[in-house]
Fold this protein.
Amino acid sequence: MNDAALRIGVDVGGTNLRVGVVQQRRILWEHRHNADFSQICCGHTPALALEKIIAELDVAIEQARKKYPAVESVGIGFPGFIDPQTRSVALSPNLPGLKNVDIALPLARRIGLPVSIENDALAAAFGEYLMADPQPASLLYLGLGTGVGGGLILDGKPYPGQHGVAMEAGHLIVKPGGRPCGCGNNGCLEQYASASGVAITYRQLTNATLNAQQIAMLAEQGNRDALEAFQVAAEMLGIALAHMLKVVDVEQVVIGGGMNAAWPLMQSAFDASLQDALIPALRGRTLVTLAKAGDQAGMLGAACLPA
Ligand SMILES: [Zn+2]
């Protein structure tokens, strides 16, 4: 990778695009562009939605190019499965209607720059890998937000898997027959260890509907139900991570996403559950750290994606 090159990274989120200009793995400039892709997808035919998405990306990228005309490439972290062979968006669970659509090629033609695209959690994993010091040979990233995303870096490269669904960690089943999940299965990690999972646990315990942030505040004041909601999340995360480590014995695990602000509420239950579920040969041997690049990881990783 040519570190001196100026690159644009775009992280496509729920209601906005974060755009940054990156050089030497540092973000020189960043900007938030309001664009609600799920509304665009719900309100239009797939073909028109795609056209509008490309137009929004173009506007956001153009703002970065006005500041830094010398940018050489664009990378996009996109919420969906990216087919590693065709680089098209195979499916986006949160953006209905987008199936097997190529975003990178028409965008590249429109803006006259090479465009790479990757799953948003995998882009964030790559961003965290670039920030890690010392850089590990292999890294597994888990993003705990509204859902649970995962990304795997092997030998310094993002690993999407054969069909672009490697490390769909949020849908590992941690409780057979458990809570129904949007993916169609029951008992997925995401239903317990995400912000929405914490809210569900708390509601089941108390009948009250609060968001994860409110529950974290209660937990910090010693509220037992709130503490338990985070403990359930931590235990499920520990079990799921132990399964993942038995499959891909990585050097470092990074925990990111908005929920990691509540990590002190989860750490001891997570450690106990992880160590308990690991095979003895692996206990205490994998470095687990909190994300360094925070919510900029996706943008940074996207900018630096291999061409
Ligand atoms: Zn699921």
Remarks:
- The CA atoms of residues 6 and 70 lie 7 Å apart.
- DSSP finds ten helices and 13 strands in the chain.
- The first helix runs from residue 37 to 43.
